[in-house]
Prior knowledge:
The chain is α/β, with parallel strands linked by helices and 374 residues long. Helix content is 46%, strand content 17%. The chain has 14 helices and 11 strands. The protein has helices spanning 27-30, 32-39, 50-62, 84-96, 111-123, 137-143, 181-198, 200-214, 218-238, 253-262, 270-286, 292-303, 315-324, 352-362, and strands at 8-14, 17-24, 43-48, 69-74, 104-109, 129-134, 151-153, 156-160, 168-172, 334-340, 343-348. Strand 5, helix 5 and strand 6 (129-134) form a beta-alpha-beta unit. The model has no long low-confidence stretch (mean pLDDT 94). The protein binds nicotinamide-adenine-dinucleotide.
Amino acid sequence: MRTASGIYRQKLDHPGGRTEIVIGAGALSGEASGLADWLEGRTVFVLSTPRLAELHGEVLESLGGAAARVVRLEVPDGEQAKSLAHAGRLWDEMLESGGKRDSRLIAFGGGTVGDLGGFVAGCFLRGIEVVQAPTTLLAQVDAAIGGKTAIDLTGGKNTVGLFHHPARVIEDTALLATLPRAELRSGLVEVVKMAALLSPPLLERVEQELDALLAADAAALAPVVAGAAAAKCGVVERDPAEGGWRRILNFGHTLGHAIEGALNYSHLRHGEAVAYGMLFALQLAHSRGLDETLGERLRGLLGRFELPPLPPLEPADLWALMSRDKKATESGLTWVLPRALGHGEMVSGIDRGEVFQQLETFLPDPFARPPFSL
Ligand SMILES: NC(=O)c1ccc[n+]([C@@H]2O[C@H](COP(=O)([O-])OP(=O)(O)OC[C@H]3O[C@@H](n4cnc5c(N)ncnc54)[C@H](O)[C@@H]3O)[C@@H](O)[C@H]2O)c1
């Protein structure tokens, strides 16, 4: 819902209660009074990175508000922050600086800070409340919403974590102005993922405003972030523990994760790898009755993203990684395949031979139209 001040408000009901999500330019300063009760008299840990401090130091400084005491916690930029070593160090720092059961934590940063911050808060003294203040598009449309938190082990990404819903999510879209174009693109892929299967009007908006969105135009970004947040909330409310329907959000992720792993998390950002994963899902869906108008539309839209080229990859390596992915179950891989605009389905039992054969044609030319029309 959009308020007169141009701020969007969204509620997410989950087994632990209700999370309010506030979205728009200036949302963080605008919400200061709303957070006063939550902060008052408490020790508040504010977790962020040196990069965020450099870019948005003033906002960062202002986050403690009515707290009795603000303790700044810092982790390095990027995925390396999501380690057991950093989580352990943060817990020690929180304990040494007097953290209590009623202390609070604010995670101010991209999805890495949010995942780590949620995890650290969820475990500290068996759980303290957290506010997520995401600063990347990807985190605003996806990672900060839904309560999933995680750290990485050497053996795999997001392998240890828990559900810990934030008390509130404050998404200040003005902060996205400093985000590099490639990060915007990566976040927008996740928007396209949700829009294609869950919200046709959102897909149309992204198609119409793609150039403005990639240029971090504040007026264009806020309604798109709000639309994606609403779509994600709808999915999470229907399946809070990711037992079934929530896996619809894995559209593009089965191959996307394998591409990231095969490239050792270099060359492509997460969203860029997912974009290739979505293109491959379109190819698999083609022979299963996909409405090709959607296939054409998504290929056309993703073509405008100017993705970095897909480096050479081997089907056998990708298959091995997909089979090991934590989202694979004992019964094998489940693919999220689009069927038509606003409709996706989960498909299991696609055999290794078919995936290999499709990968052989896909990898050299990911944007190619399937060879025949239905
Ligand atoms: N919990 C979930 O449901 C969920 C969902 C999707 C992704 N994730 C996780 O999210 C993480 C990826 O998140 P991400 O893409 O935000 O990565 P990130 O946190 O590494 O941020 C990307 C880069 O943007 C920089 N940055 C952040 N805010 C900025 C700003 N306002 N201006 C300029 N630069 C800024 C960061 O310093 C970093 O270099 C992954 O670890 C992934 O596993 C979690």
